[in-house]
Amino acid sequence: MDTATIIKSLASLGKQLLAPNDALKSVLHKTEIHNPWFTNLECMRMLESISKQMLNTAALENLIQKSALPQQRKTIGLVLAGNVPFVGMHDLICVLVSGHQAKIKLSTKDTFFFKWMKQALVSLDNYFENAIQFVEKLEHFDAVIATGSNNSARYFEYYFGKYPHIIRKNRTSIAILTGAETETQLYDLGKDVFYYYGLGCRNVSKIFMPENYDLQQLFKFWEDYRYVAENTKFKNNYDYNRALLMLNNTPYLTNDFYMLVESDQLFSPLSVLYRETYYDTKNLQLQLDAISENLQCVVANAPGNTNFGATQYPGLSDYADHIDTMAFLSTV
Fold this sequence. Notes:
The chain has helices spanning 3-18, 22-34, 40-53, 57-65, 89-97, 112-124, 127-131, 150-160, 183-194, 216-221, 232-247, 281-290, 325-331, and strands spanning 75-79, 101-105, 132-134, 143-147, 165-168, 172-176, 204-210, 253-254, 259-262, 272-278, 295-299. It is of the alpha/beta class.
């Protein structure tokens, strides 16, 4: 199948995501029942992001123009994550527009949407019947892209190390404040922190701030994100982590749906946001250089960083772990 036809089908799928039919609505309902983290609100948020940022003709054509396409069709094994809804779509899109076949091991936390998605594409063109396969065990493939935790990455290295591969580990995102941020930027930073309940690598888990920063600003502008505490699983995490802080006599600030804790650590527990004071930008940059391999996004008012409120709206060229997936797929 030619690339133009694949792009046309993917763009058509993108339009369907913005106006879910009864079948997709049923899938989203089953998804939320199966995995309470994947509420209808968060699923629809992700579908909108995928549709507008990835599954549109202009974005897909731009991706192709910037990428070298492989000369031969191969079978690419995909091990998908299940921390946020439908997070494996970016890898799948890259495989499809590269002309490869995708052999997918789904996360048990996220199964319904991808199966609906395949049928939606097959209804547009039978090519996708064989271009997308779901398997319980990955075998008979030419290369693999596997996403998981630091722990699972060790197993991926053991099983897939002899094949061309991309193996992703834990990452997180940070924000750097200067005190000169606008009210809108501070409000939008809440999206980076709370969307998808903070479960993704693009969620901000720590904020660096200057000395004497007014912490009350964050509590003031983030009230609209209080809805996260309506999720029982999130609230349980909040109660548990607050109890730990109290037992350990760890100082914290809270407004009853998240806690702000001073720490030199990077990965914060769910419902906890770490903060650290910096005293000069030069030393801060040295600190960031030392932890760069753990960072997905840096939110800041500086060139080359992610805009406030934009971490959860990645485009096709915003590759996970900063590894060019299209370049990898062109060489397998």
